[in-house]
Write a structure and sequence with these properties.
- The chain is mainly beta.
- The chain has a single domain, classed as 6 Propeller (Neuraminidase).
- It is about 5% helix and about 35% strand.
- The chain is globular, with a radius of gyration of 21 Å.
- The N terminus is likely disordered.
């Protein structure tokens, strides 16, 4: 479909600088019939919703991209920033989002999922929340100039915007112009750190230097992954990256989907109410196996009375168990999330009968009710393996970063339920396999897809990561 850039920019400005794409995915189905039996999965190419054949990128030879597309490397971890020589780009780039700036440029805010322990970690900035933690966020300013074959993407600024947090995996943008970065850990004083971790922190788009870190305690202390925000209500939906293991149901009881209802819209620091999703009439519903695509499950919400539990051996699962004991639904490793089609798309990385991943959609129907639908379940790792970060395309469809084994893909899911291969990082003949893709997000005008390769998550070890820009004839396919 035709994408009107000016209309989108007007809309983005109207919601306060947070670019929230809402594609039409109403026709999305998986390769399953109404009884849930798997039908043949399809990876489609040019003329069927996909793009031309993948070929090695001339500028970024570590990637294979569709013919006719271009790719540029903007920032490389462990190396000095090309626009801020005083900054060595921190390791472990993960979740990310784009925002329009008043000057016509773009702000990127990205996470750094540094996992070093308290003895080894060093803060990436000068105003850390915890001087013994090495995670945080960096912010970039990027300019897009020209059109078509003459389009250029230029990095203008790069700096630390939050430091002293730990294992900042994903997060999400807000419609009031900020990035919420999530800690995927609940380590704390017992682990040698100076502060407790497991929280969400907010970074304004307008910040041009490192912000004062403030944990949003009421949003919960658990194994956070991603968020997305309802632009109409300001309710924030939160995913939890925790395992269900049949061999250890006490230690690994599963993950929940949560929502945070702020006391004051757009001002999360003033607190609010945390809740966990449940299926009405089916307490402790297990979404992990035996699910039927397109089946609509009636959803309700149960309160989490203690969102910031005291340290204990059960801390990592304390919030989840509060909801599960009240009938909350069990998921397997919830990761990426994005708002679209009037609801929250979110990913179960290892859910499904093939353990290869599920994509769910929750749509609110009332203040305390909604509909939960499985829109896609991967029939095998060859079709889609371990989906992680996701974003909606302004043209329809979802862009999915895989966190699988060996070679890595960025893939698309079309409104028809087909898979598109968009970017491939092949496994080399010698040396380590490529690390995961992360942080996919479109520029506010929809012309450029930004994405990350995570690289090592520990300082001084392993493979560097990088942030890239990808653009080309998007109109040839359904992304």
């Amino acid at each position: 479909m035709r994408f009107d850039r000016r209309s989108f920019l007007r809309r983005a400005a109207a919601i306060g600088g947070g670019a929230i794409f809402a594609p039409s995915m109403s026709g999305l189905v998986s390769w399953q019939n109404v009884a849930g039996a798997t039908v043949r999965g399809r990876i489609v190419g040019f003329g069927e919703g996909g793009y031309r054949a993948l070929a090695r990128s001339a500028e970024c030879p570590e990637f294979w991209i569709p013919e006719g597309f271009q790719c540029r490397r903007l920032s490389v971890t462990t190396q000095p920033s090309t626009v801020n020589p005083g900054l060595t780009v921190p390791v472990a780039i993960d979740g990310m989002a784009t925002f329009p700036l008043p000057n016509g440029n773009i702000r990127l805010i990205r996470n750094h999922e540094v996992v070093d322990n308290a003895e080894r970690a060093r803060p990436i900035g000068a105003r850390p929340y915890d001087a013994k933690a090495g995670g945080g966020t960096t912010s970039l300013e990027v300019a897009i100039r020209g059109e078509g074959d003459g389009l250029e993407v230029e990095l203008l600024a790069e700096y630390v915007s939050l430091s002293g947090t730990h294992t900042n995996c994903a997060g999400g943008l807000t419609p009031w112009g900020s990035w919420l970065t999530c800690e995927e850990t609940v380590v704390g004083l017992a682990g040698g750190f100076d502060k407790p971790h497991g929280y969400i922190f907010e970074v304004p788009v307008s910040a041009t230097e490192e912000v004062e870190p403030v944990p949003l305690l009421a949003m919960g202390r658990f194994i956070h992954e991603a968020i997305c925000t309802d632009p109409d209500t300001g309710i924030v939906y939160e995913t939890e990256d925790a395992w269900w293991r049949e061999s250890d149901p006490v230690g690994s009881p599963g993950a929940g989907l949560y929502r945070f209802i702020p006391n004051r819209r757009d001002v999360l620091i003033e607190g609010g109410r945390l809740q966990m999703l449940a299926i009405d009439g089916m307490p402790r519903y297990d979404t992990i196996r035996g699910q039927t695509a397109r089946r609509v499950l009636p959803a309700v919400w149960v309160d989490i009375d203690d969102p910031d539990p005291s340290p204990s051996p059960e801390l990592a699962r304390a919030v989840y168990m509060q909801g599960y004991e009240q009938g909350g639904a069990r998921f397997q490793r919830l990761e990426g999330a994005w708002w679209g089609d009037g609801g929250a798309y979110f990913v179960s990385t290892n859910g499904g009968d093939a353990s290869s991943g599920q994509i769910w959609h929750y749509r609110p129907t009332g203040e305390d009710t909604g509909e939960l639908t499985l829109v896609f379940e991967s029939p095998s790792a060859d079709v889609l393996e371990a989906p992680d970060n996701i974003c909606c395309s302004p043209r329809g469809g979802l862009v999915i970063c895989e966190d699988g084994s060996a070679e890595q893909y960025v893939r698309g899911l079309t409104p028809a339920g087909d898979i598109v291969n968009l970017v491939l990082a092949p496994s080399p003949a010698e040396g380590p396999d490529p690390t995961e893709f992360a942080g996919s997000c479109f520029s506010p005008d929809g012309r450029v897809l930004f994405l990350n390769v995570q690289g090592t998550r520990r300082v001084g070890r392993g493979t560097p990561g990088a942030t890239y820009a990808l653009w080309g004839p998007w109109e040839e396919g359904l992304l």
